[in-house]
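Expect chain and fold; see below:
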Amino acid sequence: MRNNLIALYNYRGFIWSSVKRDFQSRYQMSILGATWLVLQPLAMITVYTVIFSQLMQARLPQATGPFAYSIYLCSGILTWGLFAEILSRMQVVFIENANLIKKVTFPRICLPVIVIVSCILNFLIIFSLFLVFLIFSGNFPIGNIFYVIPILLMQILFASGLGVTLGVLNVFFRDVGQFVTVLLQFWFWFTPVVYVYNTLPVWAQGWLGFNPMTSIINGYHDIFVHNTVPSFYAMKWTALIAVVFCVLGFYLFRKHAADMVDEL
C-alpha cells in the first residue's frame, strides 16, 4: 500500500496531465464545449420536474417552498451521476488504456486514480452551480453543509472499490461491461432519487434498505431538502461494503496486474 502511495506521488504530474487531457478531449471539438457538462443533467432534472413535480411536491410535507422538489431532484441526480460515472468509466479503464498499458511503463494504479479525479472534477463544476442556486433561492443549508463531505467520501470510496473490482473482472470476462450498463439502469430506479423514500410502503423501504446507495442519497436529501443532520448510523452497512470492495478491488488488481497485460 505504501509503495502504491509513493508511486502515485511520484507520478502526480502524469496523473494531472492525463486528467486535463481527458477533460479537454471531451469538449474541445464541440461548439458548446464544457456547457454540455451542465446541459445533460439539467435536461434530465427539467424532464423529471415537469413530469413528477405536482405528484411529488405533496409528498414532501416537511419541505416547503416552490423549489422543494427541484432541490430534492438535484441533490439526488447530481450525486447519483457521480457514482454512475465513476462506475461506468472504471469498469472499462483497463480495456480502454490497453495500448498505454502495453507500451508505456508506469504504475497501473494511476489509471483508476485518473478516472476518479476526472469524475470528481466534473462533479464539482456542476455541483458548485447547484450550491449557487441554493444560495440565491434562500435554501442553502448553512448549518449542515459540511456533512456532505463524509457522505461524498463514502460514496467515492464505494464507487471506486466496486469500479476497480468490475474493471479487473471485465478484462477477463467481457460480459461484465454489458452487465454493468443494465445494472445501472435498474439500480437508478431502485434508489430514491426521483421518488420520496418515506412515502413508500414499509415493505418497499425494507427492500430498498439493502441498496447501499439508498442511505447515501437519503443523507443528501436530509441535508439539502430538510436541512437536518443525516443519519450516519443508517450508512454503517454502506461504509462496510465500501471498505470490503476497496480491499477486494485492490487485491484483484495486485494479483492479476500482470495477467491483464496478456488479456488486453
About this structure: Residues 38-54+63-263 form one domain.
